[in-house]
UniProtKB/TrEMBL annotation:
Proteolytically removes the C-terminal three residues of farnesylated proteins. This is CAAX prenyl protease. Its EC number is 3.4.24.84. The keyword tRNA-binding does not apply. It comes from Coptis chinensis. One of its GO terms (cellular component) is endoplasmic reticulum membrane. Residues 27-210 form the CAAX prenyl protease 1 N-terminal domain.
Length: 365
């Protein structure tokens, strides 16, 4: 009798679910705290805090239900051999359509098509509730039902156009890779990621949001001067209009905008982006969550460094103000459980970032 891999995977999923639920319960308790963290007292209004608390608790309750249904479905799919059934049904469809079900590439694409349909159907109720109940209740949703489904259809069509060539290439690599399979797969995913990073803002993102050039003026001049001082190869500047979908906001004050951009350029200057990109290539199941946790630790350290970089350029105060405004306007959680945030957050909580900025001020003094 061989090793029970299926039972081990399902068991691991269930253990992970209970661990993450424990962290969710800790965070839920933190969200229920009736007072602001001391660092934010006098910085965030009580009215905004109450709105943030209500919004975060609504999302937390929804998250409990969503995760419970998700683990139940995923465990059932594995335990009751649903995936082999999908594979067989995909093959039956190909035979019915007069296609070659023995062709591994065609059969795999049909199988993934079945999975995509299943995923869309099972996730749709949660997406609708999140958008048209929770986001609507707290004044963030700007989407119409038509726009919601139009975006969904666009996403499906993009998957149909982009997915098959990528899947086909991966299958060919696995068929021909031999002893160098891992190297070929890594090289392919690396090149693919670079291509997608280049293509996405040019061809894909404009399908969902309106991009307009940032007009000439003081803000554009400040951003160009900042980029030039850091030798960043800035070519174009655009304003993204996401207001047709959500009222979640970004910074609007000019100095705060430049400060946040200085933070982001800090990631580029300190070579954070490439490090994270290369590290992500090594994420494999079933240690994905462990690696993801470690990457979050690295990412959080990078955020502190980028904040310090922006402050060093003289943008400490507007960066601080911008971070507070983003937190306040988007009703982000003010109280966070340290275990929960360490495990889930790629960015440090606002309280920790402000404390770090203030601490550097004290050291400077």
């Amino acid at each position: 009798m061989g090793f029970p891999y299926l039972e081990a995977v399902v068991g691991f999923m269930i253990v992970l679910y209970f661990f993450e639920t424990y962290l969710d319960l800790r965070q839920h308790a933190a969200l229920k705290l009736p007072k602001l963290p001391k660092t934010l007292e006098g910085v965030i209004s009580q009215e905004k805090f109450e709105k943030s608390r209500s919004y975060s608790l609504d999302k937390s309750y929804f998250h409990f239900v969503h995760e419970a249904v998700t683990i139940l479905m995923e465990a059932s799919i594995l335990s009751f051999a649903v995936l082999p059934l999908f594979w067989k049904k995909a093959g039956d469809f190909l035979v019915y359509a007069g296609l070659n079900a023995e062709n591994e590439i065609i059969h795999t694409l049909a199988f993934l098509g079945v999975l995509m349909i299943w995923s869309q159907i099972t996730d749709l109720p949660f997406s609708l509730y999140s958008t048209f109940v929770i986001e609507e209740r707290h004044g963030f949703n700007k989407q119409t039902v038509w726009l919601f489904f139009r975006d969904m259809i666009k996403g499906i069509l993009l998957s149909i156009v982009i997915g098959p060539p990528i899947i086909a290439a991966l299958i060919v690599i696995m068929q021909k890779g031999g002893p160098y399979l891992a190297i070929y797969l890594w090289a392919f995913t690396f090149v693919l990621s670079i291509v997608m990073m280049t293509v996405y803002p040019i061809l894909i993102a404009p399908l969902f949001n309106k991009f307009t050039p940032l007009p000439e003026g003081e803000l554009r001049q400040k951003i160009e001067n900042l980029a030039s001082s850091l030798k960043f190869p800035l070519k174009k500047l655009f304003v993204v209009d996401g207001s047709t979908r959500s009222s979640h906001s970004n910074c609007k004050d000019e100095e705060e905008v430049v400060a946040v951009i200085a933070h982001e350029l800090g990631h580029w200057k300190l070579r954070h982006t490439m490090y994270q990109f290369v590290a992500v290539q090594h994420i494999v199941t079933p240690i994905q969550h462990l690696v993801s946790f470690c990457l979050n630790l690295v990412s959080r350290a990078f955020e502190f460094q980028a904040d310090a970089f922006a402050k060093k350029l003289g943008y400490g105060k507007p960066l601080r103000a911008g971070l507070v405004k983003l937190q306040e306007e988007n009703l982000s959680a003010m109280n966070t459980d340290p275990w929960y945030s360490a495990y889930h957050y790629s960015h440090p909580p606002l309280v920790e970032r402000l404390a770090a900025i203030d601490e550097s001020d004290k050291k400077t003094d």
